[in-house]
From TrEMBL, chain A:
Coiled-coil spans in chain: none
Signal peptide positions (record): none
Transmembrane domains' residue ranges: 70-91, 98-118, 138-156, 161-177, 197-221
Keyword Membrane assigned: yes
This protein's UniProt keywords: Membrane, Transmembrane, Transmembrane helix
Domain of life: Bacteria
NCBIfam families: CbtA (TIGR02458)
Pfam families to which the protein is assigned, alphabetical: CbtA (PF09490)
Protein name: Cobalt transporter subunit CbtA
From TrEMBL, chain B:
KW Transmembrane helix (keyword) present: yes
Pfam families recorded: CbtB
Protein's UniProt name: Cobalt transporter subunit CbtB
Keywords: Membrane, Transmembrane, Transmembrane helix
The keyword Transmembrane helix appears for this protein: yes
InterPro entries, per database record: CbtB_put
Top-level taxon in the UniProt lineage: Bacteria
Annotated transmembrane regions: 12-32
Length: 233, 57
């Protein structure tokens, strides 16, 4: 059983990670490199003697840096898949049908739990922005992701308003309480770049998670073909 | 693989154990790649952490 979970998760995670990494390199990395020009002070947009063009020649492929990004993206999505596939197996054991198509919805829920819920208050940060202590933000991030994931499960498999009400509380509470915020703003990066970065990071995150859900559903359905239906709910 | 018997009997506990073990490995991988602040890991995963919305610095 463990081998089946591992096989499905690693196939789905590695394939998704590769796709996500390529999307990030094309759509997110140039924005990040542009921001780093301001983070390092190479470009200044306030009080500069002359206006700085909004278009900068950034990009190109850096073998070590971008190669590591590809490896780490594949790792991260494999890690997510190792959590997603057991949850799919658990739902299947309770009577849910797992297919590639159903996996797309699991993917959307995964995106909401892991990217959108924490990103709603701790927006994806471009390098150089002011932020509170990283440890405090990580604690808030983890708690928010766990709460949102539990909420997604309650919405999907809940059977009464008690479940759906609890889901709403879990979704809203982290934002009502609030995330650790910096005491002062010191970011040298133009807001236009920060906003574009957050939008791109969330957009690519959604694409990647939908792909991950679809692949995970597909591979898990293949691994358990002919058995899922025989399993008592 | 005699499939029906593997899943039908005794596999609920097997599935639960295997699932929990796999999920723990998954949590470990996400923690290492996304959260651990050791500088070598941080530098290598830097762009991915920003692009994936993890708290980074």
């Amino acid at each position: 059983m463990f081998t089946r979970i591992l096989t499905s998760a690693l196939f789905a995670g590695a394939a998704t990670g590769l796709i996500a990494a390529l999307l990030q390199l094309v759509f997110v990395q140039p924005v990040l490199l542009h921001a780093e020009l301001y983070e390092s002070g190479e470009l200044v947009h306030f009080g500069a003697a002359s206006a700085v063009p909004a278009e900068q020649a950034v990009g190109g492929f850096s073998p070590v840096r971008d190669g590591l990004s590809i490896v780490f993206t594949m790792l991260i999505y494999s890690g997510y898949a190792l959590i997603l596939v057991p949850l799919m197996a658990l739902a299947q054991g309770r009577g849910a049908r797992i297919t590639a198509r159903a996996g797309l919805i699991w993917g959307v829920c995964g995106f909401v739990a892991v990217h959108f819920a924490p990103g709603l208050t701790l927006a994806p940060e471009v390098p150089g922005v002011a932020a509170a202590d990283v440890g405090a933000r990580q604690v808030w991030w983890v708690l928010t992701v766990v709460a949102a994931a539990a909420a997604m499960w309650l919405i999907g498999f809940g059977k009464s308003w008690l479940h759906w009400g609890a889901a709403a509380v879990l979704l809203i509470a982290p934002h009502a309480i609030g995330a650790p915020e910096p005491e002062v703003f010191t970011g040298p990066v133009p807001t236009e770049i920060g906003a574009l970065f957050a939008a791109r990071a969330l957009g690519i995150g959604m694409a990647a998670w939908v792909v991950l859900g679809g692949f995970a559903g597909y591979f898990w359905a293949r691994e358990t073909a002919g058995q899922g239906a025989a399993q008592p709910a | 693989m005699n499939a029906t018997s593997t899943l039908a009997s005794g596999s609920r506990t097997g599935l639960l154990g295997a699932g929990i073990f796999a999920a723990l490995i998954g949590v470990g991988i996400v923690t290492l790649t996304g959260h651990v602040q050791a500088s070598a890991l941080h530098d290598a995963a830097h762009d991915v952490r920003h692009a994936t919305g993890f708290p980074c610095h």
